Known about the structure:
The chain is α/β, with parallel strands linked by helices.
Amino acid sequence: MTKSDARLRRAIGLDVGGTKIAGGVVDGAGGVIERISDRPAPTFGKRAVVRALLDVIAELTRRHHVDAIGIGAAGLVDWPEGRIRWSPNNGYTDLPLRRVIEDSTGLPTAVDNDANVAAWAEANAATEGLDRDYSVMLTVGTGLGGGFILAGEIFRGSSGVAAEVGHMFVDSRSREICSCGNNGCLESLASGTALGRAGRLAAEAEPHGLLARLGGGPDGVSGLVVRQAANLGDPTALALFERLGYWLGVGAATLTTLLDLRSIIVGGGLVAAGDLFLPHMRSSLERHIFARQHRILPEIASARLGSEAGWIGAGMLSLHELYRTESNGADVRT
Ligand SMILES: [Zn+2]
């Protein structure tokens, strides 16, 4: 099979997040053949998650001939075993998802971290204009995820759990406790959760301010309320987005200093408000990067596939791995 044949093949792609399962059928170039409506993700229990995934797979295989299955899952995922070690939002540990799905369906399956597959989709399905062979995708949503593409391949570290950019320690003065239990993590300063928390503190300090009024009191202030207030020109809310951009820029500068990146793709739910923080992220990156005058600065760009990057990338990755396996097999035979 040639690489162009691989692009004509089809795969099921699935994205298991903290709250929902998204998915559909794609070809090897990332073209969407069908997308399903989002399903709620079971919040605990391995069997419930596996059953929900197999239901979707059965539904899609009734309508399409597919060659492989790809799954992106939130949490720590061993590669290539596809074993989910720990997924704090889904409440399960030690789930050998790849083996379970392959045994049940008979189809070759790839299971990887959700941020990795999203980065893979952004690097391969939306290549126009940007050099994405050395790129990091930052997923700014409830938390802060990261996916690294280095020399055109996903970089996963020795066992698959690299690129946890949200848990880089960046601020020794911060008292914000992160979802991981540490303090001073980038995620605790630059995520939707961090934005909402900072908004509540600001509303407490200004009980008659716009944030408190839009939230119906400090406790009602969420990241979305901060965004509404910022769009109305509220200086407090705008300053919170500036702070978000500042910390993302700190993270982007550190990653680029280490990895000599060409592009930084920003995705996740908050990218819809990118105008409010991406310029601040850019200036913070320039301020914190090593040897600014003597290097090519990376471009910062918004993700193009939006919330679909995860499942599209999972499907594409499964076909990439199928092609790689078959190519290696041919090598052995000759
Ligand atoms: Zn953390």
